[in-house]
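hi! just following up on the protien thing from before. the input was this:
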Amino acid sequence: MSTGLRKACGQKRGQTMHEEILSVREIEKTFTLSAKQRKIEKTTLKKKVAVDKLSFTAHKGEVFGLLGPNGAGKTTTLRILSTLMTPDKGDAFIDNISVRSHPHEIRKKIGFLTSELKLEDFFTPNYLYDFFSHLHHVEPDIAQKRKAELFDHFGVSRFAEVKVANLSTGMKQKTSLVVAMAHAPDIVIFDEPTNGLDLLTAKSVTDFLLDLREQGKTIILSTHIFSLAEKVCDRIGIIIDGKMTACAPLAELTREASLETVFFNLYEKTAGEINE
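and the predicted 3d structure came back as:
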């Protein structure tokens, strides 16, 4: 990777940028592999480094994309930022608040959506939204107004009293999204938000990402879909084997080649260095 692309992970000297809102500093996370996991991974190693000294920044009002293959460390990184995991080393700061030492304060500031989020089958979208609004201490009148807007935008209103168990996959994802936005967070963390969705539902989620950017929200997005990254991201960090291999504005990354070509060139180079 060129020095220019590596340095662009943060703010360039003399460059006018939005205020920095997220700073990830040398975070590391290692997992112990069970015998079954080692068999699946086809390795004899008992530990796997999921995130390896990863650093990057994000600024207010931008969409920062983490692009990488499955198993690259994207989900682990976002779980650390969302305080669902604690890094073994390093730290991350949101509005200058540490995810390690002040997780409760972080949770007030962020919304987190993952395709792996499982809603309780017995509850309805209406109940779940009201529950999470109350959990975040949203004023009742504001919560109801916000719910009406989000339910209408995503077509959830017709299914407001249908139990989650009886919702389609797409409607479950939409319900998860509106629940994550119940407290109108300024920072939204999306882990593979369109994964497994049909074309229409995926488009509604993509359009919502663009709407959030227009509203000045900061979005941290992980994906392995090139077209999604190209459509919504302002800057992109390419993560392979837990390491940041490139980080730059989208226009800079794709100046001489498509994002797909840039990614696979880096991937092949990284694989070659590992095999040497």
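The chain is about 40% helix and 25% strand.
The first strand starts at residue 20 and ends at 32.
cheers
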